[in-house]
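Hey, resending since the last one bounced:
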Amino acid sequence: MVAGGDIYLPDSGVEVKKTICAICEGASTSCAMNVYVRDGRVLKVEGMKEFPHNRGTLCAKGNATRQYVYNAERLRAPLRRTGRRGGGFVEISWEEAYGEIAERLLAIKKKHGAEAVVFGVGYSKWLRPFAQRLAISFGSPNFATESSTCHFATVIAARLTYGAWGAPDIANCRSLLVWGRNPFFSATPGARPLIEAAERGVNIVEVNPLVTHLSRYATLRLVPRPGSDGALALGLARVIVDEGLHDREFIDRHTHGFTEYRALISRFTPQETERLSGVPADDVVRAARLIAGSGPAAIMTSASSTVHHLDGVQNHRAILCLSGLTGNFDAPGGNHVVPETWLHVGCSAATRQREFTYPRPLAELPPRVGADAFPVWCRFVGEAQAMHLPQQILSGRPYPLRAMLAFGYNHRMWPGNDVFERALDKLDFFVDVDLFLTPTARRADIVLPACSSLERSELRFYPCDHVILTEPAIAPLGLARADSDIIIELARRIAPEDTLLGGGYEACLDYILQPSGLTVAELKRHPSGLSLGGRPGLTAPGHYKYRRDGFATPTGKMEFVSTVLGEMGFAPLPVATAPGSDRDEAADYPLMLVTGVRLPMYMHSRTFRNSWNRQLHPLPTVALNPQTAAARGIDDGEEVLLRTRRGEVRVRAQLTGIVPADMACIYHGWPEIEVNRLLHPEHLDPISGFPACKSLRCAIDKAPPLSA
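The structure tokens again:
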């Protein structure tokens, strides 16, 4: 049937469909692939070699696509709850489902106001603009996504400091500071550019408490204690300034608050930085010289590792200040500002993403969830802060929340997720759209079956100036429907005045694409995607745009001292402000617990359903240094109890040298253990609202035998 992996025999009845894998579902991680289909069924998948993003490669998750798409747990029809929440379901028709959802949501809007309905998106990201437009057209400001725990805190830090986020220009840098990121596991297409950079002599300084696959390519590794990122960054800045490696012209002409910042970093001598972070003083000096003295330098950070702390935004601001300090912001080989094109990805094309997403200004709507608790979040992010949902649902303040329409929500990502579970059960009406009957979906009143990326059309732009509009490779399984089709049909019923949504998916895309000169019809003629390079009317944004336009901050300058934070009562300098209560617990809880670190075969809890993935790491584990385990008499593979002040989980020990002796690391997504219940629901960064799930103290001991 298939010869050589790439060639299908002409008489076999096999077609090759071009599409993307959206299992990882990051802003730019979706890999293009060839899908071999016969009689409407997928036979195999492989990476699309001509696609510049993943260049023919697929990770363990993408290679298990058939198991994911044809998983026995896939939802095949709409369901209505019978009995109590978390109980049984019966199948209903789509017309019954749409009718009941519209009737219930409109009744709640009439009685309590549109703001009483929350619209949420977890997995996947591609439908966010459609779902948020539906929320606003309905009249609700409360659109809330999983980015309340991922990425957006780093955006807040960047906008507070520069007014914009800058992507690392890896192709042109001479030094690269990689802080808390391991693309080999979390975003595999991003690994190859790092390898190529190392091979051409770029100095890679890796900052990570864990040994990663990137470590072998690093010129220098810095191993800070979890949560000490801000102190380390300020220590690096002290060396850079002391040795005259900072960009005086940029600082004099384009920055605000350098005098105060210089006074702050003066306290962070290499020796004091070593005391605070654990990084040897000599390494602090060497890293500073590599970053500031070797030519253009870029900074690559993770979406979450530096901001999952009680002072996460300030940690991240301290890191980002290094770019301006050395004159590398929006400079070639530094961190380049590229306006967002679509779904948090920037390239040379412009779209109407914002106009489409926000049919009305948010200022015309009631305050969003979290506006009172996290005003900085609501100033910079056009969404509700989802971490505050449980508190507002349960308290009814400042106004009640009665219903939720969710797409792929996972309540287990919340800190103290048992509290959110209770909150979901308090709602008058809860709808969840998903591929599987997840623990969250089981608490819904109505569950709707969604399509996988192989069963729907999806628009994606990539930073490499490539765009693709996929078409379904196979028909939807059972009665599953694309999320966009569900949103559009609901819009016709609960927001009929939105004629753009009501006009259908492709009409929406043509509206969104209009400034780029692209159309749905043209993109369909290029199933492998279309390169934007050299296209008439499209030009890549240049560098040093601040010289002409200034920075999009209140002062028009890069702000070492944040005007916004000062006005809102927070420390205006990038200094850690978290309380020391966790450190006071060291006697009873001597280890620092880091949760959420990725394994390469898993993405959230979804891919644990795939036997190919599961057999690669079948049991939930806590990674411990052998010294830590030996001190407690723990052997590799032995069951242990991991305890915090809020609870405990039973898990197996994995002894490994990648983890320092004062840490414990639980990997991401295990469905069998409720790790986030170990966190207090208010263990949040007061600026961003992000959970501090990477700086929690814990204790680990041998587990007693289970009783018979």
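The longest strand covers residues 647-655.

Sorry for the duplicate.
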